[in-house]
Amino acid sequence: MIRFALALCAATALCAAANARTLAVAPGPDAQERIQTALLDAKPGDVVALAAGRYDLTDGLSLDVDGVTVKGAGPDRTILSFKGQKGAGEGLLVTSDKVTVRDLAVEDTRGDGVKSKGSDQISFLNVRVEWTGGPKETNGAYGVYPVSSSNVLIDQVVVRGASDAGIYVGQSKNIVVKRSRAEFNVAGIEIENSMNADVFDNVATHNAGGILVFDLPNLPVMGGHSHRVFRNQVVDNDTQNFAPKGNIVANVPTGTGVMIMANRDVHVFENVIDGNKSAAVMLVAYVQKFDDKTYNPLLRDVVVRDNRIGRNAWDPQFAGGPIVKAMLGGAVPPIMWDGVTAYPGIADTVKVRITDGPILNLNLPAPGELEKARPVVAKTIGDVQVAEPKAVVLPKPQADLGA
Amino acid sequence: MRLRRRPLHRFAVPLPRFAGEVRRTANLPHSWGRGTTKGWRGRWARTVAPLFAIACLGAAPEPPAVSLETLLAETPAPKLADYRLFTDAAGRRPNAGLTPYALNTPLFSDYAEKFRMLYLPPGKAAAYRPDGVLDFPVGATLVKTFAYPADLRRPDAQVRYLETRLLIRKAEGWVALAYVWNAEQTEAVLKRAGTRLDVGFTDAAGQARHVDYAVPNQNQCKECHQLDKALLPIGPKARNLNGAFAYAEGPENQLAHWSRLGLLTGAPNPAQAPRTARWDDPAEPLEARARAYLDTNCAHCHNPRAVASNSGLFLDLEETRPAQLGVGKGPVAAGRGAGNLKVGLSPGHPDESILVYRMASTEPGVMMPELGRSLTHDEGLALIREWIARMPPR
């Protein structure tokens, strides 16, 4: 009976809150064991409170209890340093639902910074993830990394130095990334193989590429769609691409503002895009060889409108960039579309509406066939109506967190 | 010596189940045997057998049975001894009801020696399943001790136990616990948050080796031991148990032995049951050995229902799609883990295969498996390299 009552209790937010405990941890010796023990002891509704100070950690931390908040004293005050990390693929791994990680910093992890795998209602708030030695190929891949998750909130997060993407959401659905800052990463913010992301009011600066929306083959979740990228500052992405080769982001030309690849229903609007030497916006199909009959490499149903496009594309770093530049008499339009509209075996028609011209349409007959380009510059491309995806709505407790 | 001394009481039990363990192939090439203690269990069984005869002459009081109540209690016992799985403080002498077992292909864990046992409550049996782990009854407990001999060339001398891990089948599901042995080897205590242990040993080539041995935290047990987010054992699948074990009474197929003792119901004749190859038996086909190695060492995570599902790299024995095995598959979510390489597995080219690169690495964030080892498994790596090298390039 008591057990039944407890179970009921855990299931209702109210009750959990009434019983909520705070498990306090302070810096000092054995921090690894003390934090990990708190993460194991926490019950739904509890807060694991990490006092201000620096925690020197030697292994990955992990949380597998639903409804727990891990809270520091602020991203400049509670610092989890993984400089001496000897094992695990990330600093903090969350595998449970309704978890909030907030007000703390994670530094110098050997792999990813903070990861959630298979979590529902996962929130990262006011968190800083940083590789303190600056951008380096040996830094970990992702800073904040929810994957295979649903209802993802990333708010007021700062990530610096990731050798792949600072903020990376993969194979997830219902996603909000806002008021965050990604700088000195290979990719600032990346939404990959995901559904329904709203990415807005962020700053992506001094990355190799600012904001990316991709879909890749051979993954359990494919067919990314319905994203809105708006009101972001995508400026001065000027860090030389330092990704290890082989990674898809290694192909992102240094100085790319927004890049959308192989996706459906993506709307890019009201952003400020300035100071990106390769392109303000790049719209492309997936160009690499793949062996996956269920994968759609085309980019379709894309709208780019009402962005403030500053000075971009003065020195394009993509293959054939200098040639294109010469062909066009030295001025490369800031928006580039590969113009690929068909792929063998794929029935979808490609619709685009791009109004922030001038736009370079490469008119490629097939993905990546640059040598067959028939470049055309246009003021606008396409006038079809492509309905905007609905705003992402997160469950109430999460929406309140991010209010 | 302590390992060989048999508890006298055992022979009051009609069919002594625990009778030492030997590796099932005596003639491993030297390189494959490195770091394992193939001779130990062989020697053990050989020396144990005569002891049986002596033991039967004396009668000692029966030690108390395994405490099923403690195993099933809501909170884990603070000390391993509380379960009475062993009759001595050093955990060398298993109690009645425990059956040792071995796997055709085990997990590599920094060259640690491992002892595995199954405990079943009196009168209970596991039910056979052709796929996945056997269906164990409530109370079933899998026991796995990690140990290092001081010198791998003298595997039965100065054996230091590091930790004993338990998987206990409760009504609600499985629970994973680790008990860490003290330096005096007299007591093992519950360690939930994980720890690091300094271990030194001399390897098979006579080289001094050092391991910064990691006892995983309780969540990390589940990172490896899960399917669809539920905690599960990994090893005791019919196919990985389907091999002979050198019991003191003589070698016998484990499925047959368990069936004969009433520990397993519904199993077919072992010849009709599926079988995982032995990764280290050169007499078996290379492909089968390599796939068996990846199955035990990787597939508990690299599986559509487990922790690395999002990698799209699936390494279980049942996987047949080349791309899922890494062929022509670009890295995802990898960062420097891709090592500047373009595909997971490049047939004919081990040096161009991310799989090989990550198995060779000892750097956190790159190395695979990402938990459970800090040294490279040279022999396992050599096997996978050879397998890839012999694939026809595409």
What oligomeric arrangement do these chains adopt? Answer: heterodimer
Structural class of the secondary elements of chain A?
mainly beta
Structural class of chain B: alpha+beta
Quote the average pLDDT of chain B: 86
Distance between the termini of chain A: 39 Å
**Termini gap of chain B:** 55 Å
Tally the beta strands of chain B. Answer: 14
Residue share in helix of chain A: 10-25%
Instruction: Round the Cα radius of gyration of chain B to an integer and report it.
Output: 21 Å
Describe the structure.
Chain A is mainly beta. Chain A has 2 domains: 16-130, no CATH class; 164-390. Chain A contains 5 helices and 32 strands. With 394 residues, chain B is of the alpha+beta class. Chain B has 2 domains: 7-272, no CATH class; 286-389, no CATH class. In chain B, the strands form 5 sheets. A 6-stranded antiparallel beta sheet of chain B has the order 1-2-4-5-6-7, covered by helices on one side. At the A-B interface, helix 3 of A face helix 4 of B.
What can be said about this structure in brief?
The complex is a heterodimer of chains A (403) and B (394). Chain A has 403 residues and is mostly beta strands. In chain A, 10% of the residues lie in helices and 38% in strands.
Topology:
The complex is a heterodimer of chains A (403) and B (394).
Chain A: H1 2-11, H2 13-19, E1 22-25, H3 31-41, E2 47-50, E3 53-56, E4 61-63, E5 69-71, E6 78-81, E7 90-94, E8 99-107, E9 112-117, E10 120-130, E11 144-147, E12 150-155, E13 158-160, E14 165-170, E15 173-178, E16 181-183, E17 187-192, E18 195-200, E19 203-205, E20 209-214, E21 225-230, E22 233-235, E23 256-261, E24 264-269, E25 272-274, E26 279-284, E27 300-305, E28 308-309, H4 321-327, E29 335-337, E30 352-354, E31 359-361, E32 376-378, H5 396-401
Parallel strand pairs in A: 1-2, 2-5, 3-6, 4-7, 5-8, 6-8, 7-9, 8-10, 9-11, 10-12, 10-13, 11-14, 12-15, 13-16, 14-17, 15-18, 16-19, 17-20, 18-21, 19-22, 20-23, 21-24, 22-25, 23-26, 24-27, 25-28, 26-29, 27-30, 29-31
Antiparallel strand pairs in A: 31-32
Helix pairs in contact in A: 1-2
Chain B: H1 30-33, H2 38-57, H3 68-72, E1 98-101, E2 113-119, E3 126-127, E4 141-149, E5 159-170, E6 173-181, E7 188-190, E8 195-202, E9 208-215, H4 218-224, E10 226-227, E11 230-231, H5 238-241, E12 244-247, E13 250-253, H6 254-260, E14 264-265, H7 286-297, H8 354-360, H9 378-389
Parallel strand pairs in B: 3-14
Antiparallel strand pairs in B: 1-2, 2-4, 4-5, 5-6, 6-7, 8-9, 10-11, 12-13
Helix pairs in contact in B: 7-9
